[in-house]
Amino acid sequence: MTPNYQSGEVITFYSFKGGTGRSMAVANVAAVLSRNGQTRVLMIDWDIEAPGLDRFFDRQLAPEASERIRLGRQPGLLDLFAEISQILAGPEAQVPQSDDESDQFFAGLHIDRFIVKMNERPLDLLPAGAFDVTYSSRVQTFDWASLYSRAPWLYSAFVGYLSRQYRYVLVDSRTGVSDVTGICTTLVPDKLVVVFTPNRQSLLGALDVVVRSVAYRKESADLRPLLVFPLPSRIEHAEDKLRVTWRRGNEAEAIPGYQPLFEALLAEVYDLPECKLESYFNDVQVQYIPRYAYGEDIAVLDEGASDRLSLARSYETFTARLTAPKGPWDETSLTEAPAPNLNGGELKQAAQLFHEALERYIRAGDLAGQASVLRRLGDLHFRFGHLDESAGNYIQARELFQKIGDKHGEATVLKSLGDASKKQKDVPASAAFYETALKLFEEKGALREMGEVWRAIGDLQQGDGDVVDAIQSYSEAYEASVRANDARGRGLARLAGAEVASLLGKHNEAARWSDEAAHVFHQISDAPRQLTALQQSFSAWMKQGDVNNANPRFRQAIGIQGGALVSKGWKGEALVEMAERLVRDTRYQEAVAMYKEAEAVYTDGPPGRLAAVLRGLGDAQVELFKPNDAKASYTRALEIYRSIADDQGHAAMLERLGTLAFFGGH
Fold first, then answer.
1. Of 128, 523, 592, 598, which is least packed with CB atoms within 10 Å of its CB?
2. DSSP 77-144
3. Do the bridges between strand 123-126 and strand 116-117 make them parallel or antiparallel, or are there none, so unpaired?
4. Which residues lie across from 117 on neighbouring strands?
5. What whole-number distance in Å separates Cα of residue 110 and Cα of residue 75?
6. Given 2.40.10.270, 2.30.30.240, 1.25.40.10, 3.40.640.10, which CATH number is that of 577-666?
7. Cα–Cα distance between 634 and 617 in angstroms, integer?
8. What is the pLDDT confidence band of residue 484, given thresholds at 50, 70 and 90?
9. pLDDT tens, residue by residue, 311-326
10. Which CATH superfamily is domain 9-239 in?
11. pLDDT digits (tens, 9 = 90+) for 492-535
12. Residues 64, 498, 470, 157: is their CA dihedral positive or negative?
């Protein structure tokens, strides 16, 4: 998974009480967003105490992924953060200082190991965790709050990384009030969907979380605006009077209407002169359909036609509202939640210094100085999510650069305007800015900058699902970087192109480009990106079933800086993946060697994973007609399965040992 720097949206779905249809809403919204076959969507099952989002997608999961989940062998969110916690406890753990460094940290974890894919659509799932017999104890003992206190940057950086890989990241949160709830509703999202049913406990609990989440965001150093979208669910349309009463309220019956409650609350937390949700709640209500109370069916996938009264249409309508670039309030209200003011000492100081410099340049009549400072102010606002202010600064800077005839300066701010428009999901505007910047840089012969713009265009196209054009743009970026003798640009272009080539199933090309990127990053001593490129090359070769080429890339990756950058999890899983491929190729001796390496990696790791490696080792030893070795491996696996109370694994080892005994007696 290579960062493409296309910023997507992180949307948390929360309900105060269970039974509201929250997970069903996540599944249906994900199905709507991904059904064009272009938009990349990731679901995260963060309801770790009662997971089950995967059950909605039994028929859509790739068979091998479904099997791993069924057997409790598919690692997920809990396993990923356990691994991260172990890494951060090490003496060499460092805090990422930029998005690039953050991306390098998470890319080094090889997060693809924890994600399962669907058939026939660009929809992925990060499940809660490997649901084995140890799952409950792992849930109870993992300390999310302690991890936050040690690494307060971690959770927001994690979803930030994912949002640069996916257009939408949908988080299924835990109910009630807990550490996990706080993470999902305050630290993680760009948007918060509050799912509730028309009863006091569900409604008032949801309102309280909205107040706390928005208040936290305003007071924190996270300057992203948080938009809240209420979602009334399981509305019984056959009960017209009750439906209207719970929406509008009835003072005589002491029933608080959810519409006036949310109108008053959103007006207060967003400082709106008024907040009207009339048309919003006219459109957004998820009706109760009895047959969907049984099982885990997805209306958007099951209903052949989404007519006005269908459940699928309800989710389609809500998704359209949710993904619009504004809040749920009507057109007569403000159309955007105001971004928080600049805060933080260094940020305020930078803004004050820039403004003071601007005033002095104005008094001196220095247009070039004014343009330079306005561009830097735009960069400052952009860095902290103030996109409207950022665009305003860039436009002023462009006008000044035009006045003094500085085409390079004009092209630079046009590229920045393209970045800002991309953040606002305005793809046509972003593309227009990039194309104009490209022409100006071409006029000036600025090859390095041309490469940067071509990469930005490729990122824009890839994020919009246009992967064929994206690969061409990355090729243009590569050619410009070669002509500019820009090694870093060459490496980045090849790395991004390899990502797209892999999406198109061109794994040989992906491997070749990843190898070239790895070579470039080695030459310029960029070890984290060299590792990312080698991991991507390894993955491309393994997708072709080519262990002979994958293994050298693996050896190079684990040799970078003495293996300090490689996570133990990726190393172990890579070894197991090669061993399993070697078994399928009947290369049992080599498979045994790989399994033994993996055994050494997992010796002090998760016991269930070590037992699985020993089981694979024993199977390979059986194929080599080494029953005594196989017996020793199976016996060790048996002891581990017994110690962690894994009855299924225990039974499998008893069966294998019994088979060995049976054939040994004959």
1. 523
2. HHHHHHHHHHHHTSTT-----SHHHHHHHHHTTTGGGG-EEBSSSSEEEE-S---STTHHHHHHH--H
3. antiparallel
4. 124
5. 12
6. 1.25.40.10
7. 8
8. very high
9. 888 898 899 889 877 7
10. P-loop containing nucleotide triphosphate hydrolases (3.40.50.300)
11. 999 999 988 988 889 999 999 999 999 999 998 888 889 889 99
12. positive
| Six token digits for residue 101 | 């460094």
How do beta strands 9-14 and 191-196 pair? Answer: parallel
Q: Say which residues have a Cβ less than 8 Å from residue 665's Cβ, sequence separation at least 6.
A: none
Q: Which two tokens stand for residue 420?
A: 């800002």
pLDDT of residue 95: 73
Distance CA 229, CA 28 (A): 16
**Domain extents in the chain:** 9-239, 577-666
Tokens of 502: 């892999």
- Give tens-digit pLDDT for 552-611: 999 999 998 777 777 777 888 899 999 999 999 999 999 999 999 999 988 877 788 899
Cα maximum dimension of the chain:
100
Q: How open is the CA angle 67-69-75, to the nearest 5 degrees?
A: 125
Which residues fall within 8 angstroms of residue 53, CB to CB, at 6 or more apart?
23, 26, 27, 43, 45, 47, 125, 127, 128, 172
Q: Which two tokens stand for residue 475?
A: 């090729």
